[in-house]
Specification:
Length: 279
């Protein structure tokens, strides 16, 4: 029994030594196309450690005291690089936006800088408040693109989703100059988060890639007077105030979606820019 344990320990030691000795052989073998693609993108990095995650090859490395992971397809096509950064290294515009936003009092848990194929670079700040966790996506110039509940620690959800040609053409035609920041397909629907005229907008497409709606946050104090008046004079909402507002565009028209509050009571109301309440 002791002899078997001895040989087992010796075998583990050899495996451990080989793993530490060759930083390209966490997977075997590493395709040459991947090595060349990584070397071209990061010529000064030589401390990479390869692994596989799903259908992707991932090179974990350290650059300028920051841990990073670069994702590639098997043919050597770079998909994204996720870099863990500190709050102090965030762009000033992002820090200013966060510190003046609704999550400023939350605890910052983690920050990622995401560089992805055919996507705008974004910064993801993970914040916590007691049992709640949120991921805040910011552009480099401080625009909050979206905030979502943090439910997954797997970085694969950051991977870029290919836009169908029809969707890409629609975005380019309707929102000239817009850049795509996030793309997510869920239950067949496609959610495309764009930056347009320094506003983060969410564009939704159906299962057939047809446009369904576009929405973005609006500060309640900037709402048209007709919208505010419609709420203020409606007897059913006496005592309510506008807590949150979004503007929606759709093939069927445009409206503001308002969240009204009165103590613990909340209600959502649709109102057109002219002050007409939409049923």
């Amino acid at each position: 029994m002791k002899l078997k344990k001895y040989f087992l320990l010796m075998a583990l030691a050899v495996v451990g030594f080989q793993s530490c000795d060759d930083d390209d052989n966490n997977i075997a073998p590493v395709p040459e196309a991947l090595k060349e693609a990584f070397a071209q993108k990061y010529p000064s990095v030589n401390n990479k450690r390869w692994e596989t995650r799903g259908h992707y090859y991932v090179a974990d490395f350290n650059s300028q005291m920051q841990d990073a992971s670069a994702w590639f397809t098997a043919d050597g096509t770079w998909q994204m690089t996720e870099t863990d950064i500190t709050y102090s290294t965030l762009p000033a515009a992002v820090k200013t936006a966060f510190e003046s936003g609704e999550y400023a009092a939350w605890q910052v848990d983690d920050i990622d800088r995401l560089e992805r194929l055919n996507r705008e670079m974004v910064y993801v700040i993970e914040v916590e408040l007691r049992e709640q966790e949120m991921d805040l996506y910011y552009s480099a110039d401080g625009v909050l693109i979206k905030s979502v509940v943090d439910v997954d620690d797997d970085s694969s959800h950051y991977l870029p989703v290919t836009l169908p040609d029809a969707v890409k053409q629609f975005v380019e035609n309707r929102y000239p100059g817009a850049v795509v920041a996030e793309v997510e397909r869920e239950k067949g629907y496609l959610e495309v988060d764009i930056l347009h005229e320094r506003i983060g907008k969410e564009v939704i497409f159906g299962t057939d890639n047809s446009w369904m709606s576009t929405s973005w946050d609006v500060a309640p104090n900037t709402l048209p007077d007709a919208v505010k008046q419609a709420v203020a004079t409606a007897p059913q909402w006496a005592g309510y105030h506008i807590d949150d507002a979004e503007f929606f565009e759709s093939p069927n028209g445009e409206f503001y979606l308002l969240e009204l509050e009165n103590g613990e009571s909340e209600v959502e109301v649709k109102v057109t820019a002219e002050g007409v309440i939409v049923k």
